[in-house]
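Intended use. Records like the one below are meant for learning the mapping from a protein sequence to its folded structure. Do not use them to infer anything beyond what is encoded.
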Amino acid sequence: MRLFFSSFTLIALLVVSIIPCGVLAENAPNQHKVLSLASPNNEIVLHFTDEDDLARYQLSFNGKEVIGLSKLGFTFAKALPMYRDFRLSEVSRNRVDSSWEQPWGEQRIIRDHHNELVVKYTDINNAQNIFYVRARAFDEGIGFRYEVPADSSRDITRELTEFNFLNSHQATAYWIPGQGRERYEYLYRTTPLQEVDKAHTPFTVEYTDGTHIAVHEAALVDYAGMSIQRQALGMFSANLAPRADGVLVKKTGSFVTPWRTITIGDEAVDLVNSFMALNLNEPSKIEDTSWINPGKYIGIWWGMHIDKFTWGSGPKHGATTERTMAYMDFAAEHGFDGVLVEGWNVGWDGNWIANSELFSFTESYPDFDLKRVHEHSLSTGVKLIGHHETSGGISNYEAQMEDGFALYQKMGVEQIKTGYVAFGQNLKNRDEQGVMRYEFTDSQDVVNHFIHNVKTAAQYQLSINTHESVKDTGLRRTHPNWISRESARGQEYNSGWAPPNPPEHLPIMAFTRMLSGPMDFTPGIFDFDYEREHGGGPEWGDKPYTRPLSTLARQLAQYVVIYSPIQMAADLPENYLAKPEPFQFIKDVPTDWETSIALQGSVADYVVFARKEKAHRHYSGNDWYLGALTNEDERVINVPLNFLDKGQRYEAQIYRDGDKADWRTNPYDMVIEKKTVTQDDTMTIRLAAAGGVAVRFKQL
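Structure written out for the chain above:
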């Protein structure tokens, strides 16, 4: 065990050096203690200390200190603070090695293998002023949370948790601004760690020696979402989104916080191949999950973004009865489970982003007959996917929410896409006196609203896909009807009303946003030649681009790289009919997986995923899929196929960039070919700039 606390006495040094990690370091009276917790493989060691009478922790990886001494504790509006003049003691230890099954997910069986330590910090001057820290060490990282005993009330004014990244001059950060105007919908920044200001989590750091660290949180319940704020060189502290009244978090009685998580690995894919956040959440509160169905859908959506249709009523209204039924016919013919319809309900006319109080969640426009659509759904077997855009009007939505849920349940709806477009994080919530208050997307009250929405939906057997929502923190384990969410800059930014996502966007998100959970990115754009009346794209050379900066093969790769149990084929039906060969991959690829593995990758450069289908309805459970995509640089990747099942032969159905593929001038060039392969083979694949590859390995 390496030692990092410079003020240890010689006696303390000798004691600690001869005991294994995870055992209490007993010190002489009146000297500080160190309590250590090691991961099952002993590569990660978490230390708690009361050195200088401060509550702090430190983290090492492979014998090297990576997170230096970092504060723990709180300050409150009136209650005694918790951090200075505290002594450390051990409460309990535990070891867990078990497995559990997801009803849907990127991996069916999740192993929970960790060591646990609970420590107690006691105020030297007031023995009643105490708090506990429960820590769990996994082979891929650590999580810890505060557990505070009962008190009459506590208004948290600061959470003092720090993340002291050592050797910060050797680190690059990948991040988006925290608590900003666009919520989580920013392009990622790649900067020296020292140049980060306030950042959302997941927050990913890459060191020059290859070590990768990601800071996030798990089980965000009745608490404010955490950003991290730079305080000094390499030193960051928790920054909680404030409530409308300025307090960060209000608590009455005993409480626990979300888990603060630090995932760590030797390479970028180690961050991805972790299920730590899920393991830190409570088991499902829904006993019968048979009504929660993964699947693929199309929708009346992209047409609005490219100005073909409108959300509001009028001659270009997209959500009409006839169009919806036609989309259902297309979905039934090509094996899709549902049709999303946006703009069917009253409230979209005028400046709908500002008019949240005008939305009705039960009254439809005259040209949308919900009963006829329901009857057509029954005849085709294709479900209507509901839509509730709130424009951030939480009070207006909650007043109508159950009526809207009851209506959808009656009409056979199983899934609802909700939206909270409110710029500046100004979500509107009336207090008990009827005064309109404005909240952050990740404030305590709004966090509680999202959970209330999902729990209420479950009573009507409805699943929720939240857009413009708070980040995922693994709560899909506890509430498995929270089936997906957005919480990032998605495909709609590629439609022309804003500068499109650069090619590096997805190779960054794979190692940042996607660490938190499923994303409804809405892939599958096949037509890059549309034009909007008012484009918003940047200049690339001498030509502005207001479309996906992508090859066609990359659009297919997104179905494997970007995980979500519900995947949209986002383009117009006629554009799929015009390219039936690549469309076949979208029809084939599942959305629910037995196993998922991030094989290769480098943050902002490229990523390669392999996933094995789960046996379910139309899927045998025998086939594997591979997806890879790159940034603006062309590259050649060598992919050993040792993930395939031993002793099996597969037909590799390959959809790759053609030799002339160029996202600027020829994004459609694609080669579709077949090869027979086994796990002993290696595939060598060229990815064009902003390109990709998608492969189905069909077991023979």
